[in-house]
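[agent] plan:
  1. take the single chain provided in the ticket
  2. run structure prediction with default settings
  3. attach structure tokens to the ticket
  4. add a short note for the reviewer (M.T.)
[agent] executing step 1
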Amino acid sequence: MRRLTWLFSLVVVLGFVVSMNLAASPAAGAQATTGTGSIQGTILDPNGAVVSSAKVTVASKATGQKMMLEVTGAGEYSSGALIPGTYLLRVEAAGFKVVERTIVVQVGVVSNGNITLEIGSTSTVIEVEGSTVQLNTEQAAVQGVMTTEQIEQLPIGGRNFLDLAQLEPGVQIQDGGNFDPTKNGFSSISFGGRFGRTARIEVDGVDISDETVGTTTQNVPASAIQEFQVSQSTLDLSTELTSSGTVNVVTTPGTNSFHGQGFFYGRDDAYAARIAQSGPSVFTRHQYGANLGGPLIKNKLFFFGDFERGMQNLLAPVTQPAPFNTLNGGFNSPFRELEFLGRVDWTISPNYRAFYRFSYEQNRNVKGFVPNTFNPFANADNTPVHAGGIDFSTGSFTHSFRAAYLKFRNGITDAVWIPRRHFKATSKSNTMAARHCILIFCAMARASIGSRAGASRSSLHLPRLPSPVVQQSSAISQAERRTR
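[agent] step 2 finished; step 3 output follows
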């Protein structure tokens, strides 16, 4: 029995995902595979008759991968799973002019590749430029794709890639801290006003959704994302099971050309507008990172790596009503995040492609367990992910396999602490103030226990707190902020 339980747990932890899409012909229904896109179409002559003898070739402009596609007796063809990017579609047949058309393939989208040939010499080549904005007539799903240009150029507060999903109608971001204390720093998506627990979020065809409390189990660097798709209704099989919607993310692969970037974003309360008399609240955020990608073996093996670091300091205010307003103050609520992603792509043959990705995310933050109270706790998360997959075509069949190991580690501990250096500098009054705090806590605890036990009491006399308590907490917050 223990052996069966161990085996079942191993399968669950590994998160082994295998997806296999079979399409006898494009007429059976347009179906995109998870984490990729595809091209499907029909070859016709000027009279509208099918040309089943045509030869169709699809070549990637980024990696040089070139595939010969099979055309059915109905004149239809399907490219199978393709990495999102720009492709050159070439169609040639005896007695007709050669047609070359540029098509942009997006994640989760079946691109229309219908071609009408013109009678003429095969030495004549007709070049057709595809439009960047197209009406998707192949799929019935309500969906949209956030492109690389949008991810890189649109401002994102906090560099949370899911924020861009709000560009789609009916989509809102939900803070993971409202789901569970272990989810501070994570986000989920609400579709059409529905709660975000049911949303599915996938990266490179691997589900990273938290099956217990919702949101994701890992954040992905925004600079490592090539594009992502947001689907809301009439979903196909590639989006798995969900009652609301899905986010389908694909990370950036390497290409035949070296490409990279570095960045730094800074925000500080010193440069904020001083609207209130006391000035702006304490807030500092620094984010920096870099990435690099390119070929290891031209047209065969490619790499991409990305690193991103985020540091934020925030003074969390605590305000109490009278007569406890003398205890008003605040505590430092820092957030630290480290994200890393590395990916390798291998073009095994024209019809076989494989990839491997390792990603790691670690974050730590301090936040009040109950809002507006002096009970901060430290929440630490780290998630390593190993993911891989293979896509290939055999005849008119398309196959996609995905496997992943994902482990979400979480730890929660008390964050109430005072650095050792402050004890050396404390005076007698501050020491007495600390003792008074302990006495107050004990008196309140005893009063609560006595009340629950049914004991009667007339009044609770508490010692008067000297003012250095609030001053000390403020000094600690400022000193801690400077050291971090």
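[agent] step 4 note for reviewer: The CA atoms of residues 52 and 302 lie 35 Å apart.
[agent] ticket updated
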